[in-house]
Amino acid sequence: MFQRVTFLSYVWSGPFSPERHDLTPCFEYSVLFGGTAAFAIAGFLTRTRYLTRHREPHSLGRTACIYWPTQLSMIVAATAIWTMAHLFYSIEDTPIIFAWSCVTWTAGVILNHYEHKCEIRSSSAIFSFYVVSILAAVTILQTASDPGSGASYPLTPLVVFASTLTAGFSVECWPRGNTHVQQLSNIGMYGKANSLSRLTFWFFTPIISIGLQRIITADDIKGQLPESLATYAGYKRLSRAWDEALQRYRRSSILSKATAPSLFWTILRNSWGMPIPVLLSRVAIVLFSYTLPVLLKELLDYLEHHESKPVSYGITLALGMFTAALLASLLNTYNRYQTLILGLASRSALISMIFRKSLRLSTGSRNESSSGKISNHMAVDADQWWNAIVYISMWIEIPLALTISIRLLYNLLGWSMLAGSSSTVGLQHSCAAFSGSGLDFLRRIGVIEAFMSIIFISSSLIISLIKFSGPIASLSDATTSTIGVLVATRRIQQFLLEEEVDNADITRYESLPRNPLDPVISIKIASFSWKSPLNVSASRPASNERTALLSPNNSPFNPVPRTPASIQITILRGRLTAIYSPPYRFHNLVVHHDSAIPALAGRKVLSERVSNPGSDLHCLQVAGLPTHFHESLGGVSTIRAMRIQDRFIEKNAAMVDRMSSNFLSNMGSRRWLDVQLRILSAIVLLCAALFAVLQRDRMDPSLVGLTLSFTLTIIEEVASLVCNFCDLQRVIEYTSLKTEAPDTTNVLLPANWPSEGQISFKNYSARYREGLDLVIRHVSVDILPVEKIGSYWAKESDNSRVIVADAAPIGPLDQVGYCILEESGGSIEIDGVDISTVGLEDLRRHLAIIPQDPTLFAGSVRDNLDPFQELEDADPWEALERAHLKDAISALPGGLAFEVSSNGDNFSVGQRSLICLARALLRKTKILVLDEATTAMDVETDELIQKRIQQEFDRTILTIAHRIKTVMDSDKIPVLEKGRVGEFERPSVLLQREGSLFYRLAEQAGEV
């Protein structure tokens, strides 16, 4: 295989000795000593250069109990190597490899000095070199102790060298949490953890200990976010890189045709300055993963022909399988966590860039990018990056894995492996083509899978040996994820290139004119334009010459319509959305049914306390971020006018940091549990292999191969099952929430119910939700047919009395579901029918409401007024005229056919309220609720609408308002004191009582 050449007084004949099961002395010297020394020198010098140029001393002093022993161990190691070289060679003939090794340890001494000076944790570079050097020393010691090796090593210096390395490595791995330096530092637990702690996730054990005692709270993980994940730091790095790319493009485009910059590659270049350990760990994972089936094959060959080989050889193979499985598992978990950190840093930076950009968009750009579209950039496009690095890094792993797989296939099958390889690739393409064909294909495939599973189980050994399907499947996943990230990043890039507000066009006045008659705003010879069919809306009637332009305010989306509103208001927007998206997917549970019993035991002990609290914290923060983002977009004009962009940017960054911290803690708990399960599985593998070796005379090699093959897969099976159970429990929790009343009941209502519109409260009590005090206490009120009841909310300055006459507390009504309070006693009757016995759908069909946040849906104006097309064309026009909106709708292109955008964004809030008023006019119900329906209108228009309501509506009306003037024309006004009815009379009567509560409120409002 190798050409025989003389190298360092040895003849190079390959890495393995042909006479015995060992490495050749030449390979041990040249590769284990020389190769690792060369890489270490380069790594040590690079790291030292980085520390001296880019890091400042922390001024916390050194940890003497760790610093001096590690320095001494490296000096002794260099001395032992030099002594070994002089005992084995003359000075003139000393190989340069020994000199390299001495220089390497000397460079390690220098690097260790700067690591303790600038960092508070141990050096990953020194840690890695310790591991490789110890493995090399143990290998050489094994060769030196073998009489048949023919190699003459100076044994004493070699033993001293290995012992010194072991002692130094032990000190390097010792936790530093109780040291003076780390206690004075405010860095999180991840930043303080050494490499061994990060590999085993031992640094997360304190959080796990808290979780085993009580529920983990946000305070327990406060301040644990790594520096690289801070939103502001990530934004500065990415924004600077993106601005530089844009500037290079603009300079180049002036001289010649240049390629537009790519945000995707900018993010990768910005993120991949750090992850050399991530890339190396991915390569190591592939090597260790494919070492397992090779060692398994060797073990089976040994069991079949064990007479010619010693027991020590079988034990060595068993230990090798254990080491490979353990290292592959630890490195895989470490790699996933590191790539997660890189992905979260990219996501945080993108969210900050999107938020800042949204505050700077020009009016034209805002017309192109709606609030929903911008929110999608944050919630969907930027969120793609948190897991993107995992799949992007697979492009480094897949070529190596495919090469090794094909080589193993060739060794096993020869050139005939091409047929199997091509069929595997073809099947992958076919699976991708049929992946979206629906459940019908799944049912048909299920029959085939039942048969194929038998073949699969019986061929587990061959699959472990070949290991070819894994890279092909990874290739499909990596391709899909990479394309998804590319598309999402391209959308973000287009948004970041949108036109911004030119600050040069803005003139700011620090104070208003002193003369109240001087105009504050003057528009002279100005022209305004907008794209058709965009409608510039005014909240006043169209016949008035003055207008008041208002920004739209979208209604919140109700994700679980069958959940009572009293529960929905306790759940932030976005939290329920997270239930329907990853990681809350548990369909894979059925795959792991064979390992359910042991996994359930572990899950009961660990996952309920470890994984679930972290999931709760993350879900809460994920829900708060889109809520804040959406509200900021709705008030961007006010934010600019008040010049408080920095305050909102800081709040957004703080929320992103909390979300990242909670998400990282959630994933850390999962990775901690994953590591423990993988270590346990590796121990099971070791025990099974050792038992097979020790009982080799009684064991059938084929049975051993089948057993060990399944042992190799138990790692993924158990870990995946336990983590998926956490997701299942969260879904069960939300699906078990209390639901509202049914849509229909067995109660038969009269066809014209309610025919009169009389409402009776009989000893009615209610609270907003369970656990809170009553807000309505034993109210008994009769509202006669066609009465106009004015409802006014206010709070007196002494906080001793609350005046409430709101249909939400008095009745079970709200803007969408008509149900927000939980009844705690008594009843409400409409025309003698207890509404608690009526289905919600029947009840809502016979009531009309104009909500505070008027709701319109995408479609024509006619569709919004008459959704079921039950009326003649003249009826909507008549209703619009009575709502003072006919002229405005007539001026629109198409009139009633004019398309209303989603949520009515192309109408002002005031006009949306008027459309809802017209819609209520068209409904022939006997009860109408006005829930702050005129809040978005000026006082004059409010009075005009109230007079129209008094004249046009021949029905019972409950008016809810925060303006006392709005309810002054009502027939009666209920006044509640501490939840009880204190006054219920006409406004004119109450105003004659100077000591009444309503009189004092009217006096404060200037109405008396």
Looking at this protein, list some descriptive labels.
single chain; 1008 residues; alpha+beta; ABC transporter transmembrane region fold; Rossmann fold; 16 strands
User: How many discrete domains?
Assistant: 4
CATH class of the largest domain: Mainly Alpha
Q: Report the principal-axis shape.
A: elongated
The CATH topology of the largest domain, please? ABC transporter transmembrane region fold
Straight-line N-to-C gap: 107 Å
Strand content: 5-15%
Oligomeric status of the shown chains?
A: single chain
Query: Mean pLDDT, rounded to whole units?
Result: 73
Biggest sheet features: 4 strands, antiparallel
What is the count of helical runs? 36
How many DSSP E strands?
Answer: 16
Uncertain regions spanning at least 5 consecutive residues: 1-12, 432-436, 454-467, 532-561, 571-611, 794-820
Content-based structural category: alpha+beta
Q: What gyration radius follows from the Cα positions, in whole Å? A: 37 Å
Helix content: 55-70%
Order of adjacent strands in the largest pleated sheet: 4-3-8-9
CATH architecture of the largest domain: Up-down Bundle
Question: What does this 3D model show about the protein?
Answer:
- This protein is α+β, with helices and mostly antiparallel strands.
- It has four domains: 5-185, no CATH class; 229-432 and 460-499 and 608-734, Up-down Bundle (ABC transporter transmembrane region fold); 757-847 and 928-1008, P-loop containing nucleotide triphosphate hydrolases (Rossmann fold, 3-Layer(aba) Sandwich); 856-924, P-loop containing nucleotide triphosphate hydrolases (Rossmann fold).
- Helix content is 58%, strand content 7%.
- The strands form six sheets. A four-stranded antiparallel sheet has the order 4-3-8-9, with no helix packed on it.
- Helix 4 packs antiparallel against helix 5, helix 12 crosses helix 27 and helix 26 (645-694) runs antiparallel to helix 27 (701-735).
- The protein is elongated.
- The chain starts with a strand and ends with a helix.
- 35% of the residues are buried.
- The model is unreliable at 1-12, 432-436, 454-467, 532-561, 571-611 and 794-820 (pLDDT under 50).
